Amino acid sequence: MRTPGLVVGRLDGVPVILTWSWAVVALVLTAAFTPQVAEVAGWGAGVGIAAGFVAALFVSVFFHEVSHGLTARRLGVQAREYALTFFGGHTAFSGPIEGPGRSAAIAAAGPAANLVLGGACWLGWQAADHGVAAVILYAGLVSNVFTGLFNLLPALPLDGGAILEAAIWKLTGRRETGSLAAGYLGIVAGVALCGWSLARRSQELASAFWPLIIGMTVAQGGWVTVRRARQARADAALTVEQFLRPAAQAPHTALLSEVVSDLRAGRCVIVTEHATPIGYIDPSAVAALPALPTLPALPTLPTTGAASAANDLPVDAVMITIPRGLGLDASAHGAHLRAIATAASASTAIIPVVANGSLIGVLRPADIAEG
What we know:
Layout: E1 6-11, E2 14-18, H1 20-41, H2 43-74, E3 79-85, E4 88-93, H3 100-127, H4 132-151, H5 159-172, H6 175-199, H7 205-236, E5 247-251, H8 256-264, E6 268-273, E7 276-281, H9 306-309, E8 320-321, E9 328-329, H10 334-344, E10 351-355, E11 358-363, H11 365-370
Parallel strand pairs: 2-3, 5-6, 9-10
Antiparallel strand pairs: 1-2, 3-4, 6-7, 7-8, 10-11
Helix pairs in contact: 1-2, 2-3, 2-4, 3-4, 3-5, 5-6, 6-7, 7-10
């Protein structure tokens, strides 16, 4: 899903999105800095210089995100969008980043670009005469160096946290271990920044507001990271056997009386056509069935006469349809198992489980969601 906002351009086919929240930030920052600059340069120049500072900040964030995307593309990962948001920006990718080396390189690219751009602004500032250009170059220097160094803090969701995560991932072989460590540091860093902002005695509203918002954002991002890492650790231990329920199999031409004993024993009945699953009868539905006799195993079963008089029906008349051929291999495990169950939950409450081509039971996606 694409981030809502205005697409201001495309870079190598990847949309650059300016969110409406960023426009609010731009207006607030311009209004906050204009009075300070106006005391030195006058109101006319003050508005222009303040707007120039906001533009420099826009450029620094843009270069930061694009550097992530270009580095990712060189490493085989395609960027899906570049978005500038209320809290800075983000780069979304079309797929997961595999391997700690790739993850670290992509994360480091953003701060590195800011530090290089900050160095370029410093050179320009040194060469510029004292004037509007020098002020804007200095603003670019400050914004890029701050963005680069702040993002290198070893705390997720910052880039330094992603680098720390990758280092621990490399050492332990477990990404979630690195995510937990960097996520907890993110919570600590965010709370510390909020505390520092609130503890300052003499401060203007604007200078207190932004550190507080940034601190809350970092702390929340760290907490989300910790929750996801815990979920990933739990997912790694998932197996089909944990959720397997008993099942029986019947062709679509079978009668209810043939399977009622399975249903009463708590076994889900998978209905097949040419050995392909097409539906199921849940054992919880046995109470709603008519009073059918349990027929003994016979070479042939009547379809008229006594069975019809008992309101016997073919199983495909009462089954719940599932996607034809739906099945889950018994070897599925971990995050892959959760992903399959989550995808299947939109179309069915039951998934047949097979091993070596034979039905061994069923799995309910709801069981995995609850587990």
